[in-house]
Amino acid sequence: MDRRSALKLIAGASVGMAAAPLASARTPSLDQPPNFVPADISPRRIIRQVVGLRPFRPAGYVVRAERFSRRKTLVHHYGHGGAGVTMSWGTAAQAERALLSASNERTVAVLGCGVIGLTTALLLRRRGMDVTIYAQALPPHTTSNIAGAVWGPSSLYRREAVDETFAARFVDAARVSQRAFQHFANDPRYGVYWLRQYDFSLREPSGEREAQPLDHLYPGLVRHTEPDRWFGYPSVTENHVLMIDPDIYLRALMADFENAGGRIVMTRFETPSDVARLSERVIVNCTGLGARDLFGDEDLRPMRGQLTMLLPQPELDYAYTAWEGGILYMFPRRSSVVLGGTTDLDEYSTEPSAAETARQIEGHARIARRLAGLERVGG
Ligand SMILES: Cc1cc2nc3c(=O)[nH]c(=O)nc-3n(C[C@H](O)[C@H](O)[C@H](O)COP(=O)(O)OP(=O)(O)OC[C@H]3O[C@@H](n4cnc5c(N)ncnc54)[C@H](O)[C@@H]3O)c2cc1C
Questions:
Q1: I need a labelling partner for 115 at 20 to 30 A (CA). Which of 89, 148, 287, 347 fits?
Q2: Cα angle vertex 14, ends 197, 61, to 5°?
Q3: Which residues make Cβ contacts (< 8 Å) with residue 163, sequence separation at least 6?
Q4: Which residues line ligand 1 (CB under 6 A)?
């Protein structure tokens, strides 16, 4: 991809769950909307609520090698915002390249056991390196377990804070990562599956939208602009998307890493000097939001997200996003129906907010009524 295309892409995909690219084709007029089984949205069906802090950097994720503590190499790999699962295989490949061009050492310490640490560690182990993960928390107690996770590079950067170099690396990483996840979808042990997804928009479309460089990663992408057929929504984008259930997926990655001979040690690092005391000469920093305190990156900021889990509804076979005075997204898993979402910057509280739960329940119940044909947009 040329740089202009990369920047064009980045302009359309910087923030928000609904950042899946809009489509280039109109639906033939005879195309009926698919039959939606409405989600059963009610406070009585709530199983639990979870809150996580996304490691958000306006300038995007960091992959960079530097000299550390005289004879050591430190490779930073963190700051994936709302897209850590999505980007993991692509940015891990970039971190691996940074490591290989900075050092010939074969014994590596990986700090952090979220999706970024595990993916990086697995990649290096498969290259035959001797890898130990050091982490304070392991799955299921990481932010990565709270991720949706819908495959989509959203809430990853601020468009005004990134340059062309980042744009090109981002596009490359997204492609590599999506390709890697396609392989996992062939194996039920990983909890990765395809799902049809809709973006319900209340905004009138302003003409045809140009094709975007990552469109091909969203198979079946089409935009519907027939409100009469689509419950009154002026614009509905439809595509298929990869879903990753992080509880299943991270457990499988840990098993893969340990079965491949990798080691995991639980420990907390308070300062860079603690890190420097590790025996390994190459260290990969995958501490997510922890990198802010541990290595003093003040550009790294928490982006709080709250999810509401409902009892599972196996007949649901689609996901959606919508923007109605705030983001709303829904997707089914084997173990629950997941309702989101929030993107509150610089909020550190990990307590669920009752007001946010009420917003999600009311908003999603409204959408369910529309999809059942009981109500229309604006009426
Ligand atoms: C509500 C919500 C929804 C999301 N939805 C999606 C989605 O749909 N798709 C998607 O791709 N992403 C999504 N994300 C984002 C995703 O969760 C993050 O980008 C991802 O978890 C970041 O992974 P990580 O490995 O960098 O961090 P973490 O999972 O936080 O892992 C960090 C690791 O470092 C360790 N650590 C940190 N500090 C120290 C220290 N000082 N000493 C020792 N160990 C330390 C931790 O214990 C942990 O093991 C969502 C996030 C939230 C909160």
A1: 347
A2: 110
A3: none
A4: 52, 54-55, 78, 80-86, 111-117, 135-137, 142-144, 146-150, 268-269, 286-290, 294, 305, 307
Ligand 1: residue whose CA is nearest its atom 10: 83
Probe residue for ligand 1, chosen from 50, 132, 287, 342 as the CB with the greatest number of ligand atoms within 8 Å: 287
| Tens digits of pLDDT across the chain (379 residues) | 444 444 444 443 433 333 333 333 444 344 566 789 999 999 999 999 999 999 999 999 999 999 998 899 999 999 999 999 999 999 999 999 999 999 999 999 999 999 999 999 999 999 999 999 999 999 999 999 999 999 999 999 999 999 999 999 999 999 999 999 999 998 999 999 999 999 999 999 888 877 888 899 999 999 999 999 999 999 999 999 999 999 999 999 999 999 999 999 999 999 999 999 999 999 999 999 999 999 999 999 999 999 999 999 999 999 999 999 899 999 999 999 999 989 999 999 999 999 999 999 999 999 999 999 999 998 7
162-199 in b/e burial notation, b at 16+ Cβ within 10 A? beeebbbbbbbbbbbbbebbeebbeeeebbbeebebbb
User: How far, in Å, from the CA of 85 to the mean position of ligand 1?
Assistant: 9
pTM for the whole thing? 0.93
- Cα 3 to chain centroid distance, Å, stands at 24
**Nearest-angstrom CA–CA distance, 146 and 246:** 7
The CA angle 34-358-114, to the nearest 5 degrees, is 80
Atom nearest to 290 CA in ligand 1 = 38
Angle (CA) 118-121-127 rounded to 5° is: 140
Taking the C-alpha atoms of residue 57 and residue 297, their distance in angstroms, rounded to an integer, is: 9
Report DSSP letters for 147-181, one per residue: ---BS---SS--GGG--HHHHHHHHHHHHHHHHHH
CA distance 181 to 362: 33
How far is the centre of ligand 1, averaged over its atoms, from the C-alpha of 304 (Å)? 12
